[in-house]
Amino acid sequence: MTDDTPDSPGPDRTPGTADEFDRREALRAVAAVVRGDGIEVDRDSTPARWSVAVVHPVSVPGTDRKLKLRFKVALGPLPEVEAELWGLLTSDEGFGRPQAKALGKKVKAACLSSPAIEKAKARVDGWFASMAQRAAGFGESWRPKGFADELGRVVGFGGRIPRLQTLLDAMEEAFSTSAARAGLKVRRERLETASGMGVYLDSFATARAMVRKLRLFVGPTNSGKTHAAMDRLAEAESGCYLAPLRLLALEGQEALETRGRPCSLVTGEERDVRPGASFTSSTIEMVNTVKVWGACVIDEIQMIGDPDRGWAWTQAVAGVAAPEILMTGSADAIPYLKRLADALGEELEVVEFTRKSPLRVQEERVKLSEVKSGDALIAFSRKDVMALRHDLLGRGHNVAVIYGALSPEVRRAEARRFRDGTADVLVATDAIGMGLNLPVARVVLSTTRKYDGREERELTPSEIRQIGGRAGRFGMHEDGRVAVLEGENINPVRRALTSPPVPPEDPRSWISPNLSHVEAIARELDTDSLAKVLRTAGQELLRANQTFRMTDLEQRIQAAAAVDRARLPLADRDMLARCPIDTRDQNNLRLLGGWAINQGKGLRNSAPDAAERFRHNVGTDVELEKAERAVKELTAYAWLAYRFPDAYPEMDLCQERRAHLNAFIERTLAERSLARACPVCGTRLKANHRFRVCDACYGSRVEERRGGRRGGAERPEKAGGEKTDAHPQHFHHGAGRDGRKSPLPGRERAAGRRR
């Protein structure tokens, strides 16, 4: 007899009696006898509850896959066994090995013949029958073999044997996951069919009815490819030039007119229609895909790979109705265009151009003290551009600046200052990568990282080539050089300029839902919410499409949420959601939402009047930034005025105020020294003031913190009682508006850390 089963009563036990401890020990002995048959007992319950492990082979419906399911079936008490156990325990003979073996045989017979086993197997079979019936509703979207493989992994339970209900729950969860995927696929297919986005190319009926030739003029910056394309365009009877920026569209208009071709200009905010002109230069989003042209030039075609704006290049390549489509750009575009040309069933001819003047990598890092006339320093935020400008002015340079917040008119004026020698050094963001022909001898990168609106990342080789290629303008400099500031790594620049382009992981072109797509999706979803329509399109459509993928719709969705409150037709709200505002700025979203609500009520919207605050000659650094924001608001108003003239009737006043602000910004940037002001109260600061805010405002904030009134304190007031639009970001030293640290060490950053 083992030590698990007593042969006789213990020394303290009275024959003919038994207690709960004796009962549990006896049950353990019986369980040991039947354990090999998969039978287990819960000894702590009264009466004891038994269970048995069952093996049940099943076939997965729709496949030839067979699974052996193992699960435990709860049988509950065995009253006859329980009574006999107590009888043996209280007998004079007692409970020993022979009694345990005899009782074990009875337990085995009772358990294995229990009707609960067949009921459990029937539950499993019933679940598979139900699963097969539900899966049939998904049609071809259901993948039974894939589900069988998933089920095989689920029912293994890592070698453990689960209870029946646990097994059924796990199988149901696996089916629900697979069914959700299949159901979503059915929903996606239905939405793509209903919206027409699954057959995107068919929406350009005029272009599809033509025999077109696609020609790609590919080469680095300063290789003459765009000049050659414009020569060919001017030979046609009519044509259009499509550019990524208003600045480039304006240059395109001038280029065609110098070739004797009257040309109209069409951008989102303006129309310059020349009587009798058969040529049009426009920003690419304004492309006309209905009119038949003699030829078309699509500039900066590598932008087709951009997740935010690439859809406009896809639309132009696929939709322009012209027998010859000329595309100019870098070799990065080739994989995208080959995939797109195959889908179009059209021939793609690639014509390669070589750079006219060599471009070299300067291995030596450049100190700020070594910056010289003809250099262009590149930063990637407005704050860093202005910091570099300040440092270079202090070293005796005349500096022109170009960055994204500036209007096209101001950018052009700053480029003119650099071109005519009024400014000897240019400080710019990557905005100079397109649309400006500048006499740059050397491009110096202040950093090889940038914040792209989502994350801070390394510059791509394409970006480095595009920016660096601005160095060494043919006819002005024998060669161009690309360098980095002291402390930066030259290796990314060297790799980008000496290695061929790396093909993209996903060469599918980006597309965006137009109005007809939006209205069709809304009908399918039975909703009037533009934000819901766009969110559904962004999340569910084109997942499996081999040619196209959905563009990033997040900014459009945010704008849609702002205008959805207005009582306007879906088409009007969709147009409003495309308005060129900065959706990261809540003030801009509120402005757009307010305009939309007024429009829905039939009220007229007045042009923003912030320009009236800038009637003086030049401004401070704070006023400059506010003026830039005011220009953006006026630009958005002008964009809407062209589309809804009745709701936005003050176009002339808008353009007048915009011109006034641009002139104010130009004068301010041309100043040798940019006056500083407190961003909270507007008080002018001394040139040697160590901090961004004035002492009074800083002291007020310290008092607020001490008093625990961080969120509820009144804002400081200017003279006359006017409250300022103070933002918490103005108190953050050493970081830009996106929270990134400046790449430049400086007195202001150090002072900010001390405070």
UniProtKB/TrEMBL annotation:
Region (Disordered): 1-22, 705-755
Keyword terms, alphabetized: ATP-binding, Helicase, Hydrolase, Nucleotide-binding
Gene3D superfamilies, per database record: 1.20.272.40, 1.20.58.1080, P-loop containing nucleotide triphosphate hydrolases
Residue spans of biased composition, Basic and acidic residues class: 705-728, 735-755
Keyword Metal-binding: no
Main enzyme class: hydrolase
EC number: 3.6.4.13
GO MF annotations in UniProt: hydrolase activity; RNA helicase activity
Pfam families to which the protein is assigned, alphabetical: DEXQc_Suv3, Helicase_C, SUV3_C
CDD domains: SF2_C_suv3 (cd18805)
InterPro entries per the UniProt record, alphabetical: DEXQc_SUV3, Helicase_C-like, P-loop_NTPase, RNA-DNA_Helicase, SUV3_C
Helicase C-terminal domain ranges (all copies): 360-542
SUPFAM superfamilies for this protein: P-loop containing nucleoside triphosphate hydrolases
Protein name: ATP-dependent RNA helicase SUPV3L1/SUV3
Organism: Azospirillum picis
